[in-house]
UniProtKB/TrEMBL annotation:
<dbReference type="InterPro" id="IPR052342">
    <property type="entry name" value="MCH/BMMD"/>
</dbReference>
<dbReference type="Pfam" id="PF01575">
    <property type="entry name" value="MaoC_dehydratas"/>
</dbReference>
<protein>
    <submittedName>
        <fullName>MaoC/PaaZ C-terminal domain-containing protein</fullName>
    </submittedName>
</protein>
<comment type="similarity">
    <text>Belongs to the enoyl-CoA hydratase/isomerase family.</text>
</comment>
<dbReference type="InterPro" id="IPR029069">
    <property type="entry name" value="HotDog_dom_sf"/>
</dbReference>
<dbReference type="InterPro" id="IPR002539">
    <property type="entry name" value="MaoC-like_dom"/>
</dbReference>
<feature type="domain" description="MaoC-like">
    <location>
        <begin position="15"/>
        <end position="117"/>
    </location>
</feature>
Length: 155
């Protein structure tokens, strides 16, 4: 288990605690790579001419790509690295605005609650995440509960 100065433990996370991730700019290559990796080549993501005539006026990123970027940005903080055991789910996730090449995004993460797990071997931490574009629009949001290790003993 590797921890950093940024690592937090379940018993340290109070409801209302907020974190802001680093930013990341999405580029055409990200969208193309995700389309290839996921086998989802829907024209709304991969055909500039078709997408230009559609609802969004240009190609957009895959919704699940936005979720993946959000998870990566949360990881980059280091807050849960070394203390997390398992992602427990993605709940009530909503796609509320499109993501496009050129959008710079970050995540605002709020701790909703933390409790001992039913096995008392760790902490269940309920977190609300918002993936926010550079123009302030929330593109995606939802809850991402996490099972965390207990604080290591210092004995």
């Amino acid at each position: 288990m590797t921890t950093t100065d940024a690592t937090r433990w379940g018993d340290e996370l109070e409801p209302g605690t907020r974190f802001t991730t680093p930013r990341r700019t999405l580029i055409d290559a990200d969208i193309a790579w995700f389309a290839g990796w996921s086998w989802d080549a829907n024209p709304v993501h991969t055909d500039a001419v078709d997408a230009a005539a559609g609802q969004f006026g240009a190609p957009i990123a895959h919704g699940v790509m936005g979720l993946s970027v959000a998870m990566g940005l949360i990881s980059r903080m280091g807050t849960f690295e070394g203390s997390s055991v398992a992602l427990l789910g993605v709940e009530e996730w909503r796609f509320t605005a499109p993501l496009r090449s050129g959008d710079t995004v970050h995540v605002e993460l709020e701790i909703l609650g933390a409790r001992l797990s039913s096995s008392s071997e760790g902490w269940v931490v309920d977190r609300k995440a918002e993936l926010i574009r550079h123009d302030g629009v929330v593109a995606q949001s939802g809850r991402i509960p996490l099972l965390m290790r207990p604080r290591p003993s210092t004995v």
